[in-house]
Amino acid sequence: HPEGVPARFDFKGNLMSRMADIPVTAALHHHGEEPEAAGYTLEELFHLSRSTILQQRVIALQTLSNIIRQAHTGIYDRDLQLPLIPKLIEAGILFLIRWAMDEQIESIYMIAIECLANLIAPKKDEEILSQTMHWPCGYYEPTLTPADIQLGDKKSESDLTDIEILEQDLIKCLFRMNVLKRLVYLLDRMKLLPSLTIIIPVKHSFHILIRMARHSMTCANQIFEERQLMDFIIKQFIPEIITPNEEGHVYEHSLQEALKFCRILASHGSTLAFNLINRYGLNERLRNHLVAAVNLSSSLQDNQTLSELLSLWRVFILQGHMANEFGSLIPTIIIPLCRMCIQQMPNMIISQILIQLITLFDALIIYVTKFILKHQNSSEDSTNVINWSHIDGLFDLILTIAKQTMIETDEKIELDALRTACLSCLASFLIGQQLLVYLPSKVKLIRSQFFEPILHLKSTKQLMENVKFETTIAPKNASVNLPTLTQTNISPFGFLITLLRLTNIIYQIDKSLSTSNKFISQLMLTKDSEIVVYIKKMLNKLTSSVTRKIPWFEQFEHIFLFQFIQVINQEKSTEDLPSIYYEILFSLLSSLLKGYHYLAQEILKFVLFDLSFWKRSNETELADLSLITNESLCLASNESIKISPSHRTILYERAIEHLPSLYTYYKNILHLNRSSIDLNICDIHFGNLFQMDDSFKLNIQYSDTLIDPTWPYGLLSSLYTNVLSIVENEKRLDIILNTLRFVYILEMKNNLFLSKVLTKTTRFSMIAGIYLLGSDIFLEKDVADYLVAFLNCFNEQHLLQRIETRTNIQSLMTFFDL
User: Fold this and answer.
1) Segments of 53-148 assigned E as strands
2) DSSP 8-state assignment for residue 299
3) 9 near 67, Cβ under 8 Å?
């Protein structure tokens, strides 16, 4: 409200107008400070929740729960001056909920569980993550960890009070409050209550556990080590003995939320996944559930747990477990299951099962391909139960399911999602295909029966038109101590990524198609194309010098942009690729989330190895940089320095010659040279998973970027910091020259990257800091040539006059220290 009056809510959590004429019979008037105003303020609800009258406490908690749920949807954003969730946390709602969970009255602790679930686990977050998990690279799960806890004058976290922990990390505060022990007690107690009354509280309990597990690997392990809780969950909700599911019963039956909870735990690494399987015999349990689903094929359309079971199995395979067990089921269980699903289409639940089956096949292809490539040049034992013969037999089945998605229907099913999964799986199949002689025929089948028909679908054109409306939205109700992902709607990038991915792979197999057909140029670069509009807007966002957190879902836009440029580059093989695409790729590097080492490596390779682009730029764009030939720079000694146009060109050309070696240099200093298996075909979905180090996991921090914005300056900032401790002048000289060459190339490109991403002060300071390293460095002829060239360049751009000496310098010490 403009006048800043307290907001009032009805029992459903809807905002109420103070001017609305609400009858007294609605029970929304009470004896507060404004008895004439209908509705309850947050302060009044907090007060009511501590009433001695049971019904009033129930009403207060239920209303607060409804308000929190609606706040996460953004429904209050236009009407309230401040975000509501952080204010509620600050007011102490977590303690209010925890006290209510300690009560012995069912109606109170059940609503308290709901309220806590609504507070920490926004429904929309989980819904969208479930929709993106079958996209390329959708196997990544976000770890929602706040900044490290600051101890202040305390020695350890254990010395901090609950309130001090809460202010910095709400989930850690829940661990401190022994929420896990309380949840297992309540789950056990609810087992004795009527079935229909406990379904929702049980599911909300798992929503709480899932969000706590998403916090970090440390928290996931802490939950796993809570033996009483884990034993109870597995025994009651993933039972060994399968019984037909009775409506309204959740205990001693397979529960979708319990399977999802195990999936989130397993995504935290191969070790935790293995321990989960080994301790509870999940291989047998999952196998029994899968066999039971096939035996009860008539109830497939009601089986909401099967898709989550397949999703859990997929994570286990990606972590390197249970692939052989799944492979052994392919002929007897999996193929019949697929055929039954095809017969029962179209149906929403059946389409979900098919999506998870196809995505699981994709994981299996990756597992087998990785195993084969890892052992083809190795003397290690390479025996494996599952091999490419198991996969090869799935091709016709996958293509059959893909063709099913081309049948338009009025049924409310996720055809776009199923198409996306099929496109991605077929792309993976082509990459992993071991018998190369069959590749051309399989490409031809995919093209004629699925790929080209999709290009002409009305829904494909609609998805591209929707691109302009889709921008990642930073959640307004996110709190520093409780990160969320909230995004209002799903984007079309999943489908577009898989379409580009398959196109790229087809082009790399049959290189003639890229120039003869130009599928993507004809589809996406038409007159008034929304894709073009989107790319221009995205470039402005990527090249903004304003520091920003990268929203989780923007990672799919990064993949889209790279694959789009990759495909267009192949279709324009005889033409020059416009400079804007290179600018986008450079800008992408500092926006990539941690985990995308392979993509960063491929971007560097793409731009640094394209010498024709840099040479073309030298002839055209450098000509536009008017040199000041009548003026000169002067040193303190009054010695005049001039640099001729020809000398500048020579410096530029000399730097270009080093570009291939600069790729290795930057790949190493940016830590992109992780041990991995080389792929014949560049593919991000495969490449990320083909890392060989033991630290690989399927979780990445939701907003942590991989590369610092000042990455073109390489190791300069570390040299400045350690100037007195570095004694290897020759090594130091190589580092400096490598950096100067690359930065000089970028500075000479008048419209590219540095001037948009970094401040003038940072650009100057990074170069000027070389004078800290001693005269033996800056008087070296090659270094001096570049320093003089930079001074001329900065002078022409009037950069020296615009330096802000009192500003912070990105990734560097203060200006005055320099």
Assistant:
1) 141-143
2) G
3) yes
Phi and psi for 9 in degrees, rounded to 5? -130, 150
The domain of 615 spans 610-802
Q: How many domains does the chain have?
A: 3
Taking the model in full, what pTM does it have?
0.89
- Separation of CA 207 from chain center: 20
Which residues, other chains included, contact 209 with Cβ-Cβ below 8 Å and sequence gap of 6+? 180, 183, 223, 261
Amino acid at residue number 81: Q
Q: Report the range of poorest mean pLDDT among 110-124, 266-280, 559-573, 674-688.
A: 674-688
Beta strands in 553-617 (DSSP E): none
The amino acid sitting at 668 is N
Q: Return the DSSP state at 240.
A: S
Cis peptide bond N-terminal to 346, omega within 30: yes
DSSP H or E stretch at residue 701: strand 699-701
Give the confidence band of 579 by pLDDT, cuts at 50, 70, 90.
Answer: confident
Is position 142 within any domain?
Answer: no
Angle of CA points 432, 436, 441, to nearest 5°:
100
Q: Which of 86, 117, 148 is the last residue of a domain?
A: 117
More confident residue, 380 or 38: 38
Distance CA 156, CA 173 (A): 14
Burial (0-12, 13-18, 19+ Cβ within 10 Å), 417: buried
Task: Report the run of H or E that residue 366 belongs to, with start and end.
Answer: helix 348-375
Report which of 290, 282, 240 is spatially closest to residue 265, judged by C-alpha positions.
Answer: 282
Do 583 and 616 share a domain, yes or no?
A: no
| 796 and 699 inside one domain | yes
In angstroms, how far is the first alpha carbon of the chain from the final one? 49
The pLDDT value recorded for residue 408 is: 63
Q: Any idea which residue has 């033991």 for tokens?
A: 694
Q: Tell whether 681 and 551 lie within a shared domain.
A: no
Strand partners, 195: none
**Cβ neighbours of residue 546 closer than 8 Å, sequence gap 6 or more:** none
State how far the alpha carbon of 382 is from the alpha carbons of 386, 412, 439, 692, in Å: 11, 46, 25, 16
50 belongs to a structural domain: yes
For the four alpha carbons of 583, 584, 590 and 595, in that order, the dihedral sign comes to: negative
Secondary structure class of 700 (helix, strand, coil): strand
- Residues paired with 315 in a beta bridge: none
Nearest-5° Cα angle at 591, 589 to 596: 70
Lowest mean pLDDT among 51-65, 539-553, 624-638: 624-638
Please report, as a single letter, which amino acid is at residue 753.
F
Three-state secondary structure of 418-438: HHHHHHHHHHHHHHHCCCHHH
Whether 781 contacts 647, CB under 8 Å: no
In the three-class reduction of DSSP (H, G, I as helix; E, B as strand; rest coil), residue 9 is classed as: strand
Residue with the two structure tokens 């379409």: 499
SS3 of 133-163: the string is CCCCCCCCEEECCCCCCCCCCCCCHHHCCHH
Which structure tokens are listed for 287? Answer: 């196998």
Output the six-digit token pair for 127: 């819904």
Q: Which residues pair with 141 in a beta bridge?
A: 699
How does DSSP assign 619-669, residue by residue?
A: HHTGGGS----S--EE-TT--EE---HHHHHHHHHHHHHTHHHHHHHHHHH
pLDDT (tens digit per residue) in 344-389: 888 888 889 999 999 999 999 998 888 777 766 555 555 667 888 8
Residue 478, both tokens:
């996110």
Task: Point out the least confidently predicted range of 53-57, 627-631, 779-783.
Answer: 627-631
Query: Which residue among 564, 591, 618 closes a domain?
Result: 591
pLDDT tens digits along 715-760: 887 777 765 555 566 777 888 888 899 998 888 875 567 777 788 8
Radius of gyration, CA atoms only, the chain: 30
C-alpha angle 285/286/289, rounded to 5°?
90
**Per-residue pLDDT, 348:** 85
714 and 567 co-located in one domain: no
